[in-house]
Design brief:
Shape: elongated
CATH architecture of the largest domain: Orthogonal Bundle
Number of strands: 7
CATH topology of the largest domain: Endonuclease III, domain 1
CATH class of the largest domain: Mainly Alpha
Low-confidence stretches: none
Order of helices and strands: HHHHHHHHHHHHEEEEHEEEHH
Amino acid sequence: MYCSSKKLPVLRQQLLDWYETKKRDLPWRKTEDPYAVWVSEVMLQQTQVSTVIPYYERFLIEFPDVRQLAAADLQKVLKAWEGLGYYARARNLHRSAGVVCDTYGGSIPGEWKPFRALPGVGDYIASAVLSIAFGQPYAVVDGNVKRVLARLLRIKAPVNAPRYHAEFKSAADRLLDKTAAGNFNQALMELGALVCTPRQPLCRQCPLEDHCLARSKRQQAQYPRRLSGRTVPRYRIAVGVVLKKNRLLITQRKPDGLLGGLWEFPGGKIKKGESAEAAVRREIKEEVNLTVGAVQRLARVKHAYTHFKVDMDVFICRFESGRVRLNGPVDFRWVTVAGIERFPLPKANHKFLPALKEALARQGF
């Protein structure tokens, strides 16, 4: 399965030479600042490069170093992250910045054990940051790398089965050029992103074409192997925008878990046999202890999370009676339409905000 020891130096150099001439011009490749590299790697987890670039640039303007990130209010950090998704990344990065300042005097540790112990730092983030920013000899293994390795070495293990991760890690460790670990890691990831793509890999453009075992057998299409995915559940959700005079009610989610710390409009799952309108009235009563009168349908929004999808029916609801008493959320605000912009909201809520603003403008808000 493995390349011979005699061929490894040639393979490594060919990959590094290719990377030097073909790599994309990305902002995080213009710095060796460990903080900036760390921010980029956290953002790039499960998020496309094109999406990350503007967030990365704005984030570093707002929080230019680890001390300023640590000193910032979490809500401000979540607002800067708004729309990027996987908000636990932002919460952990903020917590880690505090640990770096409190424990290491604001200097990001360049050794495995202390850096790996920071909140939210797993093996991939540790390997990426320590190799790129500190030159430490740790191999990275992400989706792109697994795909390259699977074809290059004809690894039959499914790339999406966690129990086989160690097999890919072992292969990456053996291939790694320890004298240029950061560039080699980036080169392998770049190869997967640009050439060794999931479908129809560009083998004739690959610097490792002569080394690739799948290519030699004309089996590129058979690799990487994957286990069939589970059916993703879909839920129906009812959400209510409660109006009281010229204010709207928003509630804050618990600090941890899915969308932790973000603000949203009250709502929840529609029960079997229940209408969306009945569900939104019930959810508002259960969640914030308010009774609403007139209910006007605003929009239907479809949104996909990592492990489930939602069909969200959104209503504009007129406050009728009651005082807010929270059951689930941890805080609430009555805000103006313009004031909503100050709060970090889930992407699903942003999908109907334009329609909401238009509807309220017609009603004189």
